[in-house]
Amino acid sequence: MAILQTFSEQTISSARASDIKEPDYSVNSRPEICFFLNGIMEEKSLISLYLARDSHSAILSSILAVDPQQKLLIMDYGINETLNQIALKRGYLRCITSHNQIRIEFDCDNLQRVQFEGRHAFSADIPESLKRLQRRNFYRVTTSITNPAVCTIPLLRAADEAPVVYSLLDISCGGMALIDQPDADTLLKAGTTLEHCRIDLPGDGNLFSSIEASIQIAYVGTVILNNGNTCPRIGCEFINLPEKSRLLIQRYITKLEQQARKLETESGF
After folding, report:
1. In the chain, which end has fewer C-beta atoms inside a 10 angstrom radius, N or C?
2. Cα radius of gyration (the chain)
3. Which neighbouring-strand residues pair with 88?
């Protein structure tokens, strides 16, 4: 089931954006494009379907089928019908996902609603080109729901009050996304720089590692979960992250990937 992900206008242009700009190259061969799309489908990777190039609103979806003969791409339908109708009226989607830890971007035209295996789905033309963003250092991985990583942020409240603790939605060596309580007015604001934030990365029942980092809030938006709850989503960028901390995060990401592959093997997928 697709998840609606909506970001507010509280997005900042970071002065460090050029430092993390990723090299890329375009794929224009139809067979090679289909190869990548099939790989994304087999990995069951989520895709962010943006309504426009400069949009902050996206539907989280996945690829259901790739049909080279009909030149069609079939993707999961969104849970928010209003947003679905806006997308169908525009007939265009900007798609962002990952394949083998490489960020993938492509555009889809001629968007339509179809029936696929007894349910609604999006149909679009197979893209004419596909862009691969090569830098692996900032590969983002979704954290565990059952054993979540948490970020403790001091200095948001008075000295005699407990610090604020947020669960992580995802993490990379370049930053992380936090989630607040449903329908909460988050204390975090775009553009704010926070120091001495502690990030606890759990392992198998024990603490995997704990790091301290300075962060800048890149955006504050909302995410609508599968259960219908609307929660603040806070995108953060690490500032001058020490090499030791970066390595700990990379090891944690590797551990999560190993766990995911193990679950896929055990479930037969």
Report:
1. C
2. 19
3. none
What is the 8-class DSSP label of residue 36?
A: H
Q: Measured on CA atoms in the order 262, 263, 264, 267, is the torsion positive or negative?
A: positive
Which domains, ranges and CATH numbers included, belong to the chain?
23-133 (2.30.110.10), 141-267 (2.40.10.220)
> What is the spatial distance between Cα 75 and Cα 238, in angstroms, rounded to a whole number?
33
Q: Checking DSSP bridges between strand 24-27 and strand 130-133, what pairing results, if any? A: antiparallel
Nearest to 179 by CA among 194, 169, 171, 191: 169
Query: pLDDT tens across 139-150, in order?
Result: 677 787 778 899
Burial of 19 (0-12, 13-18, 19+ CB in 10 A): exposed
Question: What is the rounded CA–CA span in Å between residue 235 and residue 7?
Answer: 10
20 token code pair: 């993390």
Report strand pairing: 63-67 vs 164-171: unpaired
Beta bridge partners of 119: 116
pLDDT score recorded for residue 209: 83
What pLDDT, in 10s, does the model give residues 75-99?
999 888 888 999 999 998 999 887 7
Angle at 20 between CA 106 and CA 253, to 5 degrees: 80
